[in-house]
Amino acid sequence: MTTPNALAITKPAPAETKVKARTRRHHKGDLSVRRQIALQCLCILIAVTVLFPIAWIVSMSLDTTNARPTGLNLIPNNPSLDAYRTVLAKPTQNAVGFLQLAANSMFLAVIIALMSVSIGVLAAYAFSRMKFRGRELMMIGILAVLMLPAIATLAPLYVMLNKVVIGGFNLRNSLPGVALAVLAGQLPFAIWNMKGYLDTIPRELEEAATVDGAGRVQTFFRIILPLSTPVIAVTAFFGFIAGWTEFYFSSIFLDNEKNFTLAVALNGMVGQYSGSTPWSSFAAFSILVALPVSVVYLFLQRYIISGLTLGGVKG
Amino acid sequence: MTAASAGASGPPRRSFWRRTVNTRTAYAFLFPALLVMAVITFYPLAFQVWMSFTDYGLKNLKPTSPPPNVVGFNNYIRILNNDIVIPNFDFLRILVFNLFWAFVNVVIHVILGVAIAILLNVQGLKGRSIYRAIYILPVVIPPIIVATVWRNMFDPQYGAINQLINSTVGVLFKLPPFGLDWLTKPDPIINAYPLVLPLAFFALLAANTWLGWPLNSVVATGALQSIPGDLYEAAEMDGAGAWMKFRIVTLPALRPAMLPYAIYGFVITFNLFYLSYFMSGGGPFGQTELLVTTAYRLVNEQHLYGVAASFAIFQFFILLALTLLTNKLAKTTASYDA
Question: Distance (Å, rounded) from C-alpha A183 to C-alpha A186?
């Protein structure tokens, strides 16, 4: 496949012969050595800016002296995994351990991913394929909510969930309560994102099925659902990230240390004064939080990107 | 065989039952989403409107506590008059800063994203797939981690940025140790009230640029690769130069993909909680506070639920205005003819 090429040709080509020569080169996919070197330098420079913060945080997590740095040293003198051991055993001053924090965050992540996708894909299908009374109004309603930050209903959700008390259980002060609050923000996104993708699935497929006598429900489960695996995976994953890294609802709703999430613990770690922050533990903790989702992201990348680009171009 | 098939390919004359089959099926599909959203989104939004006219506070939280007093538009007036206990609260300044923040970021993200996508799309560039793999890294790291890491990067003593300056420019010109306090330096760089930009703004901008351009680049790459090569050849035959080709072939192809994404990015950046909250903590003197971080503080630090509700209503209308404005541009709600 010949991909278009806009930067390679930076000078206008006045003579016809020159144009031909260039076109041929374009087809062969060759660059002049000088241009190749210049572009490589640019690419490497960009790569360095991208990698620098990551290299810095990794280096910091391996350097356990926690001394004030005196120069830019990306390779620590006595690298060790002590910071990771410390963080896994006792991440914060609180009694709650890393595994408990991770389990709490995982709970939120799984619930939000499952709920937003399963509920969202049904609605997305209706919006994408059906004509019905109130469609425009509902779409605008969802779009309006989508534009709102998750935090927009913070006060009423706090007050409302706080009223739900069953025995000693207060829904506000619980992980299911936080999950509900996060879902409120995640669901409109899930619907919109999946609708954008469903819009791009050719209707001919469904029409063929309809001619063969399949109903809406059958068409949905047999044709649409399998074809939308990429966007479902992506949307579920975004729900997962939202739960795994959830901060504002957990930090406001949860009073009990044993319900705390990873992000809340991370926030507790970065003190007001840099001298009092255990930077190597902080770095190790950040990496432990980021690593699972980052790795999955890299694996799902192809799907996420096709989902995003297709979702972006709406019909 | 179900009624739906008849409805979809139906003959011109249909009974009421058959005519409404699509609507009924549609509502069946929508039911779970509508139910959930009614309970955790629309009802709270409506409840919030009522709350915004009350002095709802800590005293009203318990199920047994008395209902709050209705105070009319008092909360709204207090917000507009900056009569709120949050230190350095200035509604107009926060709003202007918030809009400026979102706009500048999106412009930078889109320009960098498109430029780098074009760079990586150059025919014959070696190592393209390696660069693509590296450039995606900021996207895969959770924003909250990006924020806390950049908080450290800009730390005056422990941060990488000052160390980087020390070991490059500092060594070169034999400067004394550089300890610029990026995130808390009090005097603003630009002070044209209501637009006040402290040094921390530029630190936040740097972090968000790092975070934001790669995804734009990905979207742009997708659009670039969908341009057929012959379009460029045709333009070349007609004697179009590089700039001309960019303008008449590349840009029109990028537009439909980039515009909705830029709008999405604008809203995301407008509501971006993490960087402001974790990097600068809204400082110095609340100058990098956004609407979202202010809303958070109203609930978490001040426990002024009534004021927070009014504040959220303001946020709602601001975002609604932005949505309608941008929607006109992108026409994302254009009806899908079924």
Answer: 5
